[in-house]
Design a protein that fits this description.
It is a single chain. The protein has about 350 residues and is an alpha/beta fold. Helix 5 runs parallel beside helix 6 and helix 7 packs across helix 9. The longest helix has 21 residues. It starts with 8 loop residues before the first strand and ends in a 16-residue tail after the last helix.
């Protein structure tokens, strides 16, 4: 049994979100933490979470990552921080730009400084493929947050031992506001809007994202950005699997969207390493421990290598997608039977 988080006090910002709830359920089942602190600003979601997860190791803190004083209080005695709180909706960030800046950038800086001041052992932040060569404000704020967490390692004095890293991955299947729940919601109309049939995206299950964060927590030495090797699928294939009988209406790419998403750029490849299940961007020379893996499992990424959803070798199969959607509770017919759409 894993012991990494045993007897640890863990704080999860955005703990009532999809990732936060799954992460907390997983560590309560897999480890024996001393305490798990749910830090979020939505009292209703905290109340609902208390009804669904009954465990005396959980503590609920109402607070906002924008509030540095509240964070300072909440982080007292905390050893591990998982920073999942963010404003994530692209249109909302475009319409309310400084609100996104205050939460995603200033909030990140507050997490960093208060974690260092409270001598937190490890801090890992969740990022997104939209932070790579961003074309919208949300992506730009997450890029800033990534850089802040990397630079935060330079601010840790000799008397402290805090280390900070990032994880960066693509779309989480079934997350709120994503294509999957939207397609299910509207497929009864008989028509599915497609921005561009060539569009591709990285996909990861919620469970896989939690496992990846946990493994990255164990490996991190400070300053890394961890990127999982995950499958891709075109938006057209996704729509055809969810609603095969529906008409697909091409509406054009919306402002702030990309045709393909990138998780690792050619410029970043110069500082990146290739591992069996992930890439690691590490501007500083990695420690001699090499993330706990033997030398033959770690190699430098070829310079100018791009890891994007168009060229990634692992394609998401129909069976894998259907199995994942069934686990999420979606009403999926067998692959051999088409979904009947009402016109």
């Amino acid at each position: 049994m894993d012991t990494m988080l045993n007897n640890k006090t863990i704080l999860v910002t955005g703990g009532t979100g999809s990732f936060g709830k799954q992460f907390i359920k997983t560590i309560l089942h897999r480890y024996s933490p001393r305490k798990v602190i749910v830090f979020s600003r939505d009292e209703l979601k905290q109340f609902e979470m208390q009804q669904s997860i009954s465990d005396d190791r959980i503590r609920y803190f109402l607070g906002d990552v924008r509030d540095k004083d509240r964070l300072h209080r909440a982080l007292n005695g905390v050893e591990i921080v998982v920073h999942a709180a963010a404003l994530k909706q692209v249109p909302a960030a475009e319409y309310n730009p400084f609100e996104a800046v205050k939460t995603n950038i200033i909030g990140a800086e507050n997490i960093i400084s208060e974690s260092i001041d409270n001598n937190v052992e490890k801090v890992i932040a969740l990022s997104t493929d939209k932070a790579v060569s961003p074309v919208n404000l949300y992506g730009a704020t997450k890029l800033c947050a990534e850089r802040l967490f990397i630079a935060g390692n330079n601010y840790v004095g000799e008397s402290r031992s805090t280390i900070l890293s990032n994880v960066r991955y693509g779309n989480v299947m079934g997350s709120r506001g994503s294509a999957i729940p939207y397609f299910f919601k509207i497929r009864h109309t008989g028509q599915i809007p497609i921005t561009d049939p060539r569009m591709t995206r990285f996909w990861i299950t919620l469970e896989a994202s939690v496992d990846f964060v946990l493994s990255s927590l164990e490996m991190m030495t400070g300053g890394e950005t961890f990127i999982p090797k995950i499958p891709t699928m075109s938006i057209m294939d996704l729509a055809n699997i969810i609603a095969p009988d529906c008409e697909k209406k091409i509406i054009g790419i919306r402002p702030g969207e990309k045709l393909h998403e990138t998780l690792l750029t050619g410029d970043e490849s110069r500082d990146s390493y290739d591992l069996p299940d992930r890439y690691i961007i590490c501007p500083q020379k990695p420690s001699s421990t090499k993330w706990g893996l033997p030398d033959d499992q770690i190699s430098r990424v070829e310079e100018s290598f791009h890891y994007n959803s168009a060229n990634a070798p692992d394609k998401l199969s129909q069976k894998t997608l259907l199995d994942a959607l069934q686990k999420l509770g979606y009403d999926i017919e067998t692959p051999h039977k088409k979904v009947a759409c009402q016109n």
